[in-house]
Amino acid sequence: MQEYRGYITDIKADSSNDRLIGKVLGTRALIKASGKTFPEVRQNLTEAIDEYIEICQQENLEPDKSYSGEICLQTLPDIHRAVEIVASLSGKSVSHWLEDLVVCTLETNHQDILGSRFSNRWLRYLNQFRLLFS
Hints:
Blueprint: E1 2-4, E2 7-14, E3 19-25, E4 32-35, H1 38-58, H2 77-89, H3 94-109, H4 111-114, H5 119-133
Antiparallel strand pairs: 1-2, 2-3, 3-4
């Protein structure tokens, strides 16, 4: 994965035609590129992103790249109740508690995406969590 102009890209092998396929993640627009080598695909992706931004400017459209920060979550009532209780015991709103949980999970399992920018926050949170349930 790589970032270019705020867009996250991913490259995968397509064994059916011996090519690499790259695409931009997290946009409604389909921004893709291909090539035989990783440098070629990366270059093609940067050109595709630049072209996408240029087309949006020509059409007076806002390029699709940032998220609203809102995630809709539906769950079972018992889970909802448990989350509400744990969040309250943590002194947090449900939204803040869930955000902390998501960041912790991302950092634990996907450090390649987040880097280390949330590390100190999560160490404090995990220590609080352990105290509540020990």
